[in-house]
Amino acid sequence: MENSEKTVEVLNDLIQINNDRADGFERAASDLSEENIDLKN
């Protein structure tokens, strides 16, 4: 039981990290200037 709880905790942390990174990429893409628009893809 304890092992399962630790696994769930680690997976939740990894999901949160992944979501934070996705949000960061979206923010960075929205802040691009016109001269760097080719980086948006």
How big is the Rg?
A: 17 Å
Q: How is the quaternary structure best described?
A: single chain
Flag low-confidence runs.
Answer: none
Largest sheet: none
- State the order of secondary-structure elements, H for helix, E for strand: H
Give the N-to-C terminal Cα separation.
Answer: 44 Å
Category by helix and strand content: mainly alpha
- Total number of beta strands: 0
Portion in helices: over 70%
Average pLDDT across residues? 89
Shape: rod-shaped
As a percent range, the share of strand residues is under 5%
Question: Tally the helices: what do you get?
Answer: 1
Protein name: DUF2383 domain-containing protein
Organism: Pedobacter ureilyticus
Structural overview:
The protein has 41 residues and is mainly alpha-helical. 71% of the residues lie in helices and 0% in strands. It is built from 1 helix and no strands. The protein has one helix at residues 2-30. The protein is rod-shaped, with a radius of gyration of 17 Å. The mean pLDDT is 89.
Features:
41 residues, mainly alpha, 0% strand, Ferritin-like
Give the secondary structure arrangement, pairings included.
Blueprint: H1 2-30
